[in-house]
């Protein structure tokens, strides 16, 4: 096995490789932190991983405290409480440490410690990010512990608005963490089910970015290689969680997905967000379920692209069907349910969620336009297990 280690400088400074969590205190100091607030979720906070990170920071002279009031699909109060903890402890930087929920909350706390406006004023619409007081933002080190969301290299945080049960994307270009420590050893303990679900989130990012019609060859190239790594390594990472080579490639693919999706996402994320916001379904798992239905729907726009993807992945059939078969087989191998019904989504939900899906910012990136009525049809396809192309 070649050395799976590197220092990358795009999309941000990434220290990649097994064991590199040892560099956390150095990374904080490089950003001028003396009193970092480590933001993580309550389950992770109890694990030795966090304990030893905090101990390492403290023995390096950093006054590090932990904030762990972070729920899955985080809400505004998680951010507000984090901001209070930051101010109370007179912190001077954030370590966002964990899966997507912890990373997003950490990044949102780093944004909000410098603002006086409410968080929803910074939703990713029009040019609202220009309202941000940039000088008040806290520097951030991000440490992912799952390989899926890629939030460590993203410029946004997804926060659920409990007033209308929608997931809102809070965006500012400077929310991109200044330093990422990507240490695949931190993912060795992830259960197979979680590995599968978050790995499919990474696939959905690379795939939706690749399918999105905007002109962005950089992102498209990254997405292709990201999908190859997932094709080659996700089944192994799920089957044998201790395989550090598989874990390394999945962590890279996760970073690549979030780098690529600056190009755009699509209807997989549009359909998935209302399910998580209303029923608290797992983001990656929901994407995994809807993936073949959305891909089939988009088929009329994807012929040539799917042929190129199939060729790059060296699939037995170098066509749209080859890619679809691969995804169906992959879902089956790693234990993803076949329909949204298995996640508790019913046909009664379809109409209500369709409007939210239509309004989701991801919708604009879908390769074929989708109306509210078509989103309702797509939900029914995902619930009833019907692969159908847009007409
Ligand atoms: Zn996602």
Characterize the structure shown.
With 391 residues, this protein is of the alpha/beta class. It contains 14 helices and nine strands. The protein has helices at 24-30, 42-45, 48-59, 76-88, 100-112, 192-211, 217-239, 244-260, 267-279, 283-297, 303-312, 320-333, 347-359, 372-384; strands spanning 6-8, 13-16, 36-39, 65-67, 93-98, 140-144, 156-161, 166-171, 179-182. Helix 4 crosses helix 5 (100-112), helix 6 runs parallel beside helix 10 (283-297) and helix 7 (217-239) packs antiparallel against helix 8. The longest helix has 23 residues, at 217-239. Bound molecules: zinc ion (ZN). The site of zinc ion (ZN) has 7 residues, from helix 6 and helix 10.
Radius of gyration: 20 Å
Q: What pattern of helices and strands is seen along the backbone?
A: EEHEHHEHEHEEEEHHHHHHHHH
Please work out how many helical segments DSSP would assign.
14
Structural class by helix and strand composition: alpha/beta
Question: End-to-end span in angstroms?
Answer: 47 Å
**Into which percent range does the helicity of residues fall?**
40-55%
Poorly predicted parts = none
Inertia-based shape: globular
The spatial strand order of the largest sheet comes to: 1-2-9-6-5-3-4
Question: Major sheet, described briefly?
Answer: 7 strands, mixed
Beta-strand share of residues: 5-15%
Task: List ligands, each type once.
Answer: zinc ion
The number of E-state strands comes to 9
Average pLDDT score? 97
Short description:
The protein has 391 residues and is an alpha/beta fold. It is built from 14 helices and nine strands.
């Amino acid at each position: 096995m070649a050395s799976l280690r590197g220092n990358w400088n795009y999309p941000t400074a990434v220290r990649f490789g097994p064991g590199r969590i040892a560099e956390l205190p150095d990374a904080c100091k490089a950003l001028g932190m003396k009193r970092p607030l480590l933001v993580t979720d309550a389950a992770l906070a109890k694990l030795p991983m966090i304990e030893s990170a905090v101990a390492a920071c403290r023995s390096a002279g950093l006054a590090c405290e932990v904030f762990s009031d972070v729920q899955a699909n985080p809400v505004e109060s998680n951010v507000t409480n984090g901001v209070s903890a930051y101010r109370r402890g007179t912190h001077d930087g954030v370590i966002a440490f964990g899966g997507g929920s912890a990373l997003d909350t950490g990044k949102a706390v780093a944004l909000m410690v410098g603002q006086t406006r409410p968080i929803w004023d910074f939703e990713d619409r029009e040019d609202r990010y220009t309202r941000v007081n940039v000088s008040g933002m806290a520097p951030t080190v991000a440490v992912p512990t799952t390989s899926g969301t890629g939030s460590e290299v993203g410029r946004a945080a997804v926060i659920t608005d409990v007033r209308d049960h929608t997931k809102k994307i809070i965006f500012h270009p400077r929310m991109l963490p200044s330093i990422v420590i990507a240490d695949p050893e931190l993912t060795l303990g992830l259960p197979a089910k979680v590995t599968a679900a978050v790995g499919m989130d990474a696939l959905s990012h690379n795939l939706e970015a690749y399918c999105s019609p905007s002109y962005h060859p950089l992102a498209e190239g990254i997405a292709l290689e990201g999908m190859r790594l997932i094709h080659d390594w996700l089944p192994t990472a799920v089957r044998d969680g201790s395989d550090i080579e598989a874990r390394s490639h999945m962590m890279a693919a996760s970073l690549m997905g979030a780098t690529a999706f600056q190009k755009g996402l699509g209807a997989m994320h549009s359909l998935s967000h209302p399910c998580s916001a209303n029923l608290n379904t797992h983001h990656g798992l929901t994407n995994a379920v809807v993936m073949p239905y959305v891909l089939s729907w988009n088929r009329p726009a994807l012929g040539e692209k799917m042929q190129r993807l199939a060729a790059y992945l060296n699939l037995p059939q170098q066509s749209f069907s080859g890619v679809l078969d691969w995804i169906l087989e992959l879902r089956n191998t790693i234990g993803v349910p076949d329909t949204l019904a298995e996640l508790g989504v019913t046909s009664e939900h379809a109409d209500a969620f369709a409007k939210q899906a239509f309004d989701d910012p991801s919708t604009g990136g879908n390769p074929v336009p989708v109306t509210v009525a078509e989103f309702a049809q797509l939900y029914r396809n995902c619930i009833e297990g019907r692969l159908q192309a847009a007409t």
